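Record 1 of the preview.
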Amino acid sequence: MKLVIFSATIGAACAFSPSVHKASSTTAHRMSEAPTEEAVNAEPIATEAATPEVAVAAPTVAAINGWVPDDTKPLYGLPGAIAPFGFFDPLGFSSNLELQGAKRFREAEIMHGRVAMMATVGYLLGENTPTITYGMKTLADHHVLANNMIPEVPGTVLFPFFLAINIAEAIRASIGWVEPGLGPLFTLRENYYPGDIRFDPFGLKPKTAEEFVDMQNKELSNGRLAMLAAAGMCVQEQVTGKGVLEAIGF
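->
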């Protein structure tokens, strides 16, 4: 009897054991497969998350009065290419210039243009209006040519005049040029725009880049014309011996 009960018990236990192993094996198999699929699906997500964003490179040169040097354009894109000629450089002075050279050329052009504009007005006023130098005499009392004024003006009048010029040039140099010993000679500061010496007592400097380019083109046009006019007046007086207005019948 005990043997029969023991045999039945062993048989029942053996009958249940494959079923438990199969379930355990199946469960273990499913558990092992589930993480594998999640891991496979999770890999692209992790890869996408780890991909760094490409940052947009900032310009290497900061804009000055709206101008950013562009070596693909004549004179690095500085204003001055004005109709009807556009960029006019028949002798190729600006060819193969580095940025510093282009800025120096523009600095020289705009400063000479400003001096020529004042000289043109000076020719006309000095010859045709009473001046302190000549004792406030009228044109009927004296005849003077602008070309002869410097030798005729006393040194006491010329000294403060030339002193003012030297002070103005020293201020301009300190604003726009690198000090000797701190860099190569004849080098403009990187943040200096040619001709912008921060002298604007009437607040006429434009606020936007487009307006600044327009005003710069106007100043360059008038300066170029004035350089030709001043040179023409000087030559005309040397050749004819007459004042500017006198030579044309005024």
